[in-house]
Amino acid sequence: MRHRHIHSAGFKWWTNLREEALNWFEKMKTGIKSLIKREIPQGIWIKCKNCGHSNYEMALRRRHWICPECACHYPIGHQQYIDLLIDDGTFTEINANVAPVDPLKFKGYRDKIKTSRRQSGLKESVYTGIGQIDGHPVALAIMDSRYLTGTLGGATGEKLCRLIDRAMIERCTLVIICQSGGARMQESAYSLMQMARISAKLNQLAQNGLLYIAIITDPTYGGVTASFAMLGDIALAEPGARIGFAGQTVIQQFLGTDAPLPEGFQLAETVLEHGFIDRIVPRDRMAAELARLISLLSPQPASHA
Questions:
Q1: What is the pLDDT of residues 242-251, one digit of tens each?
Q2: Class for the domain spanning 76-297
Q3: Are 291 and 134 in contact, with CB atoms under 8 Å apart?
Q4: Which of 150, 206, 236, 265 has its CA 20 to 30 A from that of 301?
Q5: pTM above 0.85?
Q6: How many helices (H) and strands (E) does the chain have?
Q7: What Å distances lie between residue 224 and 19, 96, 192, 221, CA to CA?
Q8: Cα separation values, 232 from 105, 202, 214, Å
Q9: C-alpha of 95 from chain center
Q10: Where do the structural domains in the chain lie, given as residue ranges?
């Protein structure tokens, strides 16, 4: 009986020890998982919305945010375009403090402005400045869809008009990177007026014999497509960019049908086939293409004897 009691006590001791060891290992495993989650930043792998391929974020950055599998061009912000196109150390921002007001006291508009400023780092949906592309002076505007989907408002128009004036003063090429959801509904007619203002300024630029190159990126819709995006002496587009006046959902609702629209509808490749743009240029070749076009088509500065 005594030996049986010792055996039973030993077995119980071993069972308790085993349970404690298993609990310890479970705690260690949970701790290691938590440590891994803390040390690996979120979003390090990004799934392509077009082909589903998982891309390493740093590799995408090196490729200027172009998917290596399907060449899908991810949307990028204004600073990435500056780094991509402009010669190092040559860019100077202008009219940085031009910002929208709320002329119609539109409900919730001021809150949207605050959110957009935080998301984009801009005070308006367009970033403007003077710089050089391969040594050629340019007046550059970059629309940023993180700011109210890049919509065209009163301050957007003001910044673009001032940039065009600066291009005429500096006698340099104007480049506008278009990326917009269209006219800004919160400003109603104030927004629509900008289409005419900017178009009139572009006419003045043309009368001064200066070159305007429009670069259309994804997406470019509405009043921007209906005005300055299509008024360039040269109109370039990134591959796969959606270009149109109204979005596909709006068009289907207007037609009263759920039937799919034609393949490639509103994509840059189809727009090129119909003659509305001049060329599709991959993002990583855009700087070289701009330098070539400016050297061929921009008026040369007068030489001083």
A1: 999 887 888 8
A2: alpha beta
A3: yes
A4: 236
A5: no
A6: 10, 9
A7: 68, 21, 10, 6
A8: 34, 9, 5
A9: 20
A10: 25-74, 76-297
